[in-house]
Amino acid sequence: MDLTQGTLEEKNNRAKKMMLWFGIISLVMSFAGWTSAFVVSSSRPDWLKDFQLPNAFIISTVIIVVSSVTFILAKQALKKDNRPSTTMWLLATFVLGIIFIFYQFKGFQQIIDLGYNFTGPTSNVTMSYIYLIAIVHILHVVVGLICLLVVIYNHFKQKYNASKMLGFELAATFWHFIDILWVYLFLFLYFIR
């Protein structure tokens, strides 16, 4: 495909999508580095080999997967110009994102209750990696929630419709990425000892 073809709006849309994908690729590389460091560090003598992730992380994983489904339903409703359903599914996605973060912090509390902190004399290198990976992911979920708020605001301003939904699609792509990323991270942390 010749990227120089099309109207100015089409070129701008392609450029915005490409920039999002560059950002996503850089995030994939960052998390790949952290998970690689996790694997390399697992050979340390002080590494916890029998640690199980808190149940709150399992619940948060289910919640973020459901939030991707609600975002898909919002997009389908928008394509049908069903504004009330779009609003309902967008708000549901936002609420599920907040609940995801709540359960992540609940998981941190469960780790602390087991006696492991992020730093200090009660810290452990295994737990520090888990904290780091989860907290950085939470920060990206917060960015996703901000994007979602912008989409909700623009939706109320009627800036999106079935034929004009670039901002909506960009936010959805990022949201689905952070969803898939967390599923990967959860499975990685759950199964890699």
Describe the structure.
With 193 residues, this protein is mostly helical. It is built from five helices and no strands. The chain starts with 7 loop residues before the first helix and ends with a helix. The model has no long low-confidence stretch (mean pLDDT 93).
Q: How is the topology of this model organized?
A:
Blueprint: H1 8-41, H2 55-79, H3 83-113, H4 125-156, H5 166-191
Overall body shape: elongated
- By DSSP (H or I, 4+ residues per run), the number of helices equals 5
* Helix/strand/pairing category: mainly alpha
- Helical content stands at over 70%
User: Mind telling me the C-alpha Rg?
Assistant: 19 Å
Biggest β-sheet: count, sense, barrel?
none
- The percentage of residues in β strands lies in under 5%
Strand element count: 0
Order of helices and strands, N to C?
A: HHHHH
Kindly state the mean pLDDT as a whole number? 93
Low-confidence stretches: none
First-last Cα distance: 45 Å
